[in-house]
Amino acid sequence: MSLLTVSGLGKSFGGVKAVDGIDFRLDAGELLALIGPNGAGKSTTFNMVNGQLRADAGSIRLDGIELVGLKPRQIWRLGVGRTFQIAATFASLTVVENVQMALISADRKVYSLWRPAAAHRRAEALALLDQVGMAAQADRPCSVLAYGDVKRVELAIAMANSPKLLLMDEPTAGMAPAERNDLMALTKKLVVERGIAVLFTEHSMDVVFAYADRMVVLARGRLIAEGRPADIRDHPKVQEVYFGSGKTFEKKATASAENAQ
Ligand code: ADP
Ligand code: MG
User: Fold this and answer.
1) Which of 53, 61, 141, 244 is most exposed, with minimal Cβ within 10 Å?
2) Where is pLDDT greater, at 149 or 254?
3) Ligand lying closest to the C-alpha of residue 54
4) How far is the CA of 41 from the centre of ligand 1 (A)?
């Protein structure tokens, strides 16, 4: 059984079928990219998985548990974490304090006779920060961090809840190419080390092709292709949707490089 199984998922807004009966699955240890042109239904899909939006057709199962109809907080408790497109740390707190707060919040989801003392949570928080390469900046306020470093802290915060599935909405938006690669390499490392699954939306095709294990391509609410990056790259329907027929991702990349000169 897959970790996440989405079947016949649908959502309409008025007369518009934003998501029109899509099926996909996601296994632990996998990075799945959800791509497609603007208006394809990516955000709507994302928000149905995290519970911000209620599906009006189909099912979303996590480890066999139906998520449709559950509240965002309940879905989070079941192990669906997310990072945000807008940096979501508390600027006035230090890096380690932000992660400690996330650990305390994650604690509350389970009944436990033994609660670690705050000092222990600091050690746990530092261990998480170490995993994202931010231990050395633990006692700096978040407000002074570089953007790429804030994103690393957000990853540590998301990990505090030990998610089974992590949803990342355009994680590299606003980043320079080198920073993008660092963040995705780090995400990939966490996916492998912790055996979690990641569903992410992403505009940069370079990032998608470099880091996704599999891709799901949406257009106008329909799933038009699914597969490994190598298969998707040459998929005629995908190329048609993105560039019109007769062009490829490579040719498009070359064309924009030429335009830049
Ligand atoms: P994407 O994230 O792929 O760009 P969205 O999921 O945001 O696409 O949108 C899919 C379609 O649903 C679009 O036609 C969009 O205009 C419409 N849509 C999304 N959210 C709403 C909403 N809250 N109310 C009305 N229409 C919406
Ligand atoms: Mg969107």
Assistant:
1) 244
2) 149
3) 1
4) 6
